[in-house]
Amino acid sequence: MQGRTIDRHKVLIANRGEIAMRVMGACTRLGLDFVCVCTAVDRESGHVRMARELAGDDAVYTITSYLDANEIFSVADASGATAVHPGYGFFAEDFRFARRVVRRDRPMEFIGPSWWVIRDLGDKINTKRIARSLNVPTVPGSDRPVYSEIEADEIASSLFEFQASQGIVDGVIMVKASAGGGGMGIEEVGDFNEFRSVFRRIRNYAKRNFGDEGVLIEQRIFDFNHLEVQVVSGRGGQHHVHFGTRNCSVQSTGKQKRIEVAPGFAPDVVAYTFDAARVLSEITDHSLAMARETRYDNVGTWEWIITPRGEPFLMEVNTRIQVENGVSAVISRVHGEPVDIITEQIRLALGEPLRYTQEDITFEGVGIEYRLVAENTAKRFTPCAGTITRLAWPEREWLHVHTHVPTDRPYEIPMEYDPNLALAIVWGADLAEAKARGREFLDGLVLKGRCGNATSEFYSNIEYLKAKTDRLLEF
């Protein structure tokens, strides 16, 4: 595929809903043909309608699952697609899928980082090792699986001592199965005298369930802010820029983000107990240093936690486009012009040069992204099944709403997927204006529905979002 120009590509969008629609928009801006996929329960989704309106009925292929790679590749071959955009979730951070895209008999382009970058940074232990080799601060604890009780005791003891030195009275450490995932094989320990029995229990659990009894031991950090750095890199892995920071601290009990704000702190208007401007500078510098070291070559996010004392610790690297890319884009300018990060992701993945440096990027104002979700926030954010009967909002020049929910007819929420309904991105000249506009949007938003169970009330998180808006970016 070498030598082909970008406008001769056809992109297979291997995802659904809002992200599929935003990728379609980016393809249209770039003059690229595209096709999309949908499952039977997604036939009424806005991404299907948009694909048909922009590219005709032949642009939509029905599949049984978004997680069936063979189906995805069958659609690619049937449609003549030359590139695959995985969106977020599903195959977005699966290095084996990305490797298969570029190595199959009819190779295509993978719109994301190279598969070996996804592999190397998708391994949290390896990411921690790379970070520490560059003096990038990481969550205190082991950077490799621990098997020895003696070594485990030494690490646990040092972590409890470290927390005591931070003024933490009731320190807690995390004991995790290194081969686990999805919250499996994790326990918290608040007393060193209990640690050894927990270590043995997790080690046995890991061996039984994952075939590897390795254990990770890390400090449990409370009351932190969750910040991210948006990195964009050229395909050769030599040119790297950032599109600022964002604060993702408003989350559900399941650690799912509900509000994101860019930039990540507001040093000029919010009183912090630390130098917030310095912290923002540090985490962007560290993120770019790691991007250079690993020859990162597309869009990615470096995730950080910031303690109440202003200490940053790298958590992980997300080797994909993220839901909240739009809130970074809304405050970013390249050569004084607005930027779309998904458009940049596609353009760079298909071989075009970066065309700008960090000096060409400026930032204006404050952005807030609200995730509208059908959920009962009072009951641990329990998803709400049912039908959306009306979704409407007043149009504003400072507002962008991305939704796959039709606004002209009822829409049944498919419970096979997360009950996310829309993303609303608000821009303001400063934090006060952004918050005021955010409240104005939420107050004017109309979201009505009915539950599948006629005796149950339909829930959304609108009131929760309103309550959280007043204290955004505060610690």
From TrEMBL:
It comes from the Bacteria. SUPFAM superfamilies: Glutathione synthetase ATP-binding domain-like, PreATP-grasp domain, Rudiment single hybrid motif. GO terms for molecular function: ATP binding; biotin carboxylase activity; metal ion binding. Coiled coil: none annotated. Residues 128-350 form the ATP-grasp domain. It holds the Pfam family Biotin_carb_C. Its EC number is 6.3.4.14. It catalyses: N(6)-biotinyl-L-lysyl-[protein] + hydrogencarbonate + ATP = N(6)-carboxybiotinyl-L-lysyl-[protein] + ADP + phosphate + H(+). PROSITE patterns: ATP_GRASP, BC, CPSASE_2. Residues 7-475 form the Biotin carboxylation domain. InterPro entries: ACC_Biotin_Carboxylase, ATP-grasp, ATP_grasp_subdomain_1, BC-like_N, Biotin_carboxylation_dom, Biotin_COase_C, CPAse_ATP-bd, PreATP-grasp_dom_sf. Keywords: ATP-binding, Biotin, Ligase, Nucleotide-binding. It is an enzyme of class 6 (ligase). This protein is a component of the acetyl coenzyme A carboxylase complex; first, biotin carboxylase catalyzes the carboxylation of the carrier protein and then the transcarboxylase transfers the carboxyl group to form malonyl-CoA. This is biotin carboxylase. It comes from Pseudodesulfovibrio mercurii.
